[in-house]
Design brief:
The chain has about 140 residues and is α+β, with helices and mostly antiparallel strands. It folds into 2 domains: about 70 residues, no CATH class; about 35 residues. The protein is about 45% helix and about 15% strand. The chain has 5 helices and 3 strands; from the N terminus they run H-E-E-E-H-H-H-H. A 3-stranded antiparallel beta sheet has the order 1-2-3, with no helix packed on it. A hairpin with a 4-residue loop joins strand 2 and strand 3. The longest helix is centred in the middle third of the chain and has 19 residues.
Length: about 140
C-alpha cells in the first residue's frame, strides 16, 4: 500500500486557534485594586490609601508614564509622538479612555490593487516575483 502524501492529507485540516487566557484579571474601584490570579483563582485586594503618602505620590507620575507609554506601543517616529499627544490631550479633557487610532492595516487586496496599478515593465516583473515568493498570486 502506498503511503499518502502528508501535504495532501493535511492541507485542508484547519489549525485550531487557542484563545489566550489572561493570567491576571484586574479591577479598580475607587482606591482599591482587586487582582485575581487565574491558575489558583486567588483574589487579592490592595488599597492605595494603605500606603505611606510619599509612595502614594509616586503612583501618579508612574501611572502617567505607563498610560502615555502604552499609547505609543508598536509605533515609532512621528506616529508615536502623535499618539502620545492625542492621549495626553484626551486626559487633559477628562477622557480616560481616549485611544490613539490604530495603524493602517495592509490587506492582501490593497497590495494586489497597488500591484495592478504599476506600469508593465521590469519593476512590475520583480514585484510579481517577490509577491509570488510571499504566496500572493497576482495572475
Amino acid at each position: 500500500m502506498a503511503k499518502p502524501d502528508l501535504k495532501e492529507v493535511t492541507e485542508d485540516v484547519p489549525t485550531p486557534v487557542k484563545k489566550k487566557r489572561k493570567r491576571l484579571s484586574k479591577k479598580i474601584e475607587g482606591t482599591v485594586l482587586t487582582i485575581v490570579e487565574a491558575t489558583t483563582e486567588t483574589t487579592m485586594t490592595f488599597d492605595l490609601l494603605d500606603l505611606p503618602a510619599d509612595i502614594q505620590a509616586l503612583f501618579a507620575p508612574f501611572g502617567m508614564s505607563q498610560k502615555l507609554g502604552d499609547s505609543a506601543a508598536g509605533k515609532k517616529g512621528q506616529e508615536a509622538v502623535d499618539s502620545i499627544n492625542k492621549v495626553w490631550e484626551g486626559l487633559k479633557a477628562g477622557n480616560w479612555s481616549v485611544r490613539a487610532p490604530a495603524a493602517e492595516k495592509i490587506t492582501k487586496k490593497s497590495i494586489i490593487s497597488k500591484f495592478d496599478e504599476m506600469p508593465d515593465g521590469k519593476e512590475k516583473d520583480i514585484a510579481a516575483g517577490l509577491l509570488k515568493t510571499l504566496g500572493i498570486s497576482v495572475d
